[in-house]
């Protein structure tokens, strides 16, 4: 459980940032503590902190050394990190449409072969998952998801691609992901979503945030094209589930 984790380590990150590291591996309990500390800083701002960036297992805290020193900041961060986790709250939940296979998911058949099953079974396992946005990173809107079914865990590609399409839905290692922008990737491409998790001139600019819950559902390729045009015009194609 999260309460048994050792105290976090404070790692200087240049002369104006500190990393609060809760674990050295991807860990769900550590991620809960990362997000709890991030929320605690938002609720009780510390003078001198300019930004905080949550990851799977650590929180990067940027600060102004002219306003607060490393040692003083470290004491405040450790005090906040030692507090019990707050009661669980209802997270935002998104349903994300995905066009699987074919030109949109060029690795789907290879993944099925590697796991000794069929493409339809891979899709069924993927849409059955209940995922959490553990962090946003790499490129704007890139949502790293925890909660991938163990039956879909597999090593990343030996030869990463230099460019993969915007909207790619992929898996790699023990993670799933939503890739917003075209970018390099060594993950396995199962499909594409028309949803823009990042769109510069839309309100909100970023759709998902750490702590959100995500599920996927399959759409055909014609529906993808229709929704892709709508999303390009600024529509939020994802469905927000109201509890």
TrEMBL record:
Record-listed E.C. numbers: 3.5.2.9
Occurrences of domain Carboxyltransferase (ranges): 8-207
Keyword terms: ATP-binding, Hydrolase, Nucleotide-binding
Domain of life: Bacteria
GO molecular function term, any single one: ATP binding
Protein name: 5-oxoprolinase subunit PxpB
UniProt keyword Hydrolase, yes or no: yes
Top enzyme category: hydrolase
Keyword Hydrolase tagged: yes
